[in-house]
């Protein structure tokens, strides 16, 4: 059985869509958030606004595609599946934020924020809740819910941004602050923290 070969037209279409999204991410990362318009992206991509509307007929579709591309560009770590991964999450997550500081800051202050937060962040939050259910079965549901909410808070771009740019913390201080808070939340519901090797 032969595999279908993409047509030249399909490859051109994919390349054009990629060009549009790359221009939008570049604009977000290196310009003001206010420039994230169809016209601004078209100018950055050196194409017409009409071409963008061919690929993204509505503003909602356009912003949804940009949010998905921003998430992909941030190269976020996988959701924690073990307690050890949860304890390592601030370092891995904040490292990804540091690598794309301009993009993260722009996303936090744009229409993309809710779209980005509702995708990987929501899945990360569910993973944290499952870990607390597993490792703190004697804690009340309310206590686990509150601990999960606190941990979720420290695994967010908003918290990273607050530490780095409002408190003026260094990258290592930012990670240490989040790790400390997460450990406190875990021990508060009776989770036994593994000792460092």
Account of the protein in words:
It is a single chain. By secondary structure, the chain is mostly helical. The protein has two domains: 8-73, Orthogonal Bundle (Arc Repressor Mutant, subunit A), CATH 1.10.10; 76-188, no CATH class. It contains ten helices and no strands. It has helices at residues 8-30, 38-45, 49-55, 59-74, 83-99, 101-108, 113-135, 141-154, 157-166, 171-188. Helix 1 (8-30) crosses helix 4, helix 7 (113-135) packs across helix 8 (141-154) and helix 8 runs antiparallel to helix 10 (171-188). The chain starts with 7 loop residues before the first helix and ends in a 9-residue tail after the last helix.
Layout of helices and strands, plus pairs?
Blueprint: H1 8-30, H2 38-45, H3 49-55, H4 59-74, H5 83-99, H6 101-108, H7 113-135, H8 141-154, H9 157-166, H10 171-188
Helix pairs in contact: 1-2, 1-4, 1-6, 2-3, 4-7, 5-10, 7-8, 8-10, 9-10
């Amino acid at each position: 059985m032969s595999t279908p070969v993409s047509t030249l037209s399909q490859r051109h279409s994919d390349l054009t869509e990629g060009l549009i999204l790359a221009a939008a991410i570049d604009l977000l990362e290196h310009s003001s958030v206010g420039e994230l318009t169809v016209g601004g992206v078209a100018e950055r991509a050196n194409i017409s606004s009409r071409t963008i509307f061919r690929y993204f007929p509505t503003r909602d579709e356009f912003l949804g595609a940009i949010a998905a591309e921003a998430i992909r560009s941030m190269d976020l770590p996988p959701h924690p599946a073990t307690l050890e991964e949860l304890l390592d999450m601030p370092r891995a997550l904040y490292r990804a934020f540091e690598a794309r500081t301009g993009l993260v800051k722009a996303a936090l202050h744009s229409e993309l924020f809710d779209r980005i937060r509702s995708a990987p962040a929501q899945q990360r939050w569910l993973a944290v809740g499952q870990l607390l259910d597993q490792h703190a079965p004697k804690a009340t549901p309310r206590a686990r819910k509150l601990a999960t909410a606190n941990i979720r808070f420290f695994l967010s771009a908003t918290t990273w941004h607050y530490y780095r740019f409002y408190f003026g913390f260094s990258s290592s201080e930012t990670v240490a602050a989040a790790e400390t808070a997460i450990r406190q939340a875990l021990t508060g519901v009776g989770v036994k923290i593994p000792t460092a090797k």
